[in-house]
Specification:
Length: about 280
């Protein structure tokens, strides 16, 4: 069975506190986009075997897809193994939930293959053990994520919008970005309620101008290229541009495909990993 696993962007990301275990309390608006990993899962004879077309992705127990499969094999005491082939299109360590979406895909595929009759809630509970973004990746679409990312409220689905994603050639660790965040130094928080209101009214222009990701306070200081990409997108008529998740990928929202294409071509002269996508 092959599952298309979409990337996500964060239309906003606010940090409102910190738990005792170090995890941060968030309010963020999540959105899936049309950039996919194709994950093929099938019954195997023994153990969990991971294959991936990208050498930077670990094909061992550190792979998020492996972790998801292991949790399910153990929970349901399944004797056979699973073979998982990850055809990766989503850039790695990019802030686009590449690993999380693969784990979500494996959970859904194994639910079907082994006829486990898990509900969405059951699957999200297993997903959370793999990572904070996995429960969202199981539902996808437009959603408000709270708690550490696992408390989800489905929102009115975002009007189809053209986006450009651009990843600068730097690697950013999610744990390091959260670790360097100074909560009391955040000056601008997103107005999450207003953003949700604008999603409901399909006021994409107003929404795009109100997008804020507080993690930019950490990453832009260290990597000014993130701000440069945001500015190029604005010069090329993006309605708004923002870093996704813990970065370093920046996305821009555009009025139509033609505008998005112009920006895509400009950024392709400058960066290798640039994608023209739509919200899903
Ligand atoms: C940046 C986002 O992608 C935004 O959607 C997520 O908040 C991160 O989600 P994720 O990569 O699935 O996160 P995990 O794999 O669970 O955690 C990676 C690391 O990020 C930090 N982390 C993550 C989520 C959260 N709410 N607070 C945190 O402080 C923790 O140090 C953790 O060790
Ligand atoms: N299936 C997978 N796909 C990509 N990376 C994986 C996978 N499994 C484990 N990894 C490891 O996880 C690290 C983070 O990769 P990933 O692409 O998930 O980051 P991300 O897009 O920043 O995620 P998030 O937005 O959820 O923080 C990589 O450096 C890689 O070593």
């Amino acid at each position: 069975m092959t599952i298309k696993c979409p990337a996500k962007i964060n239309l906003s990301l606010d940090v409102i506190g910190k738990r005792e275990d170090g995890y941060h309390l968030l309010r963020m608006i999540m959105q899936t986009v049309s950039l996919f990993d194709n994950v093929t899962v099938q019954k195997g004879s023994e153990g969990i075997n991971i294959y991936c077309n990208k050498s930077s992705v670990p094909c061992n127990e550190n792979n998020s897809a492996y972790k998801a499969a292991k949790l399910i094999l153990d929970k349901f005491q399944i004797k056979s193994g699973v073979d998982i082939l990850i055809d990766k299109e989503i850039p790695v360590a990019a802030g686009l939930a590449g690993g999380s979406t693969d784990a979500a895909g494996v959970i859904k595929a194994m639910n079907e293959i082994f006829k486990l009759h898990m509900t969405m809630e059951d699957m999200m509970e297993i997903g959370l053990k793999v990572g904070a973004d996995v429960p969202y990746c199981i539902i996808g679409g437009t959603a408000l994520a709270e708690g550490i990312g696992e408390k989800l409220t489905v929102l009115k689905q975002f009007k189809e919008t053209w986006c450009v994603l651009a990843k600068p050639p730097i690697s950013v660790s999610t744990a390091d970005v959260y670790g360097s965040l100074k909560l009391d130094e955040i000056v601008r928080h997103p107005d999450t309620e207003e953003l949700i209101d604008n999603i409901e009214k399909e006021e994409i222009d107003i929404l795009a101008k109100g997008m804020v990701n507080v993690l930019e306070t950490v990453t832009i200081k260290e990597y000014p290229i993130i701000l440069e990409i945001k500015n190029i997108m604005k010069e090329f008529n993006a309605l708004g541009s923002l870093m996704s998740g813990s970065g370093p990928t920046v996305f821009g929202l555009f009025r139509d495909k033609a505008e998005a294409e112009k920006c895509y071509h400009r950024l392709r002269d400058y960066l290798k990993e640039v994608y023209l996508v739509k919200t899903l």
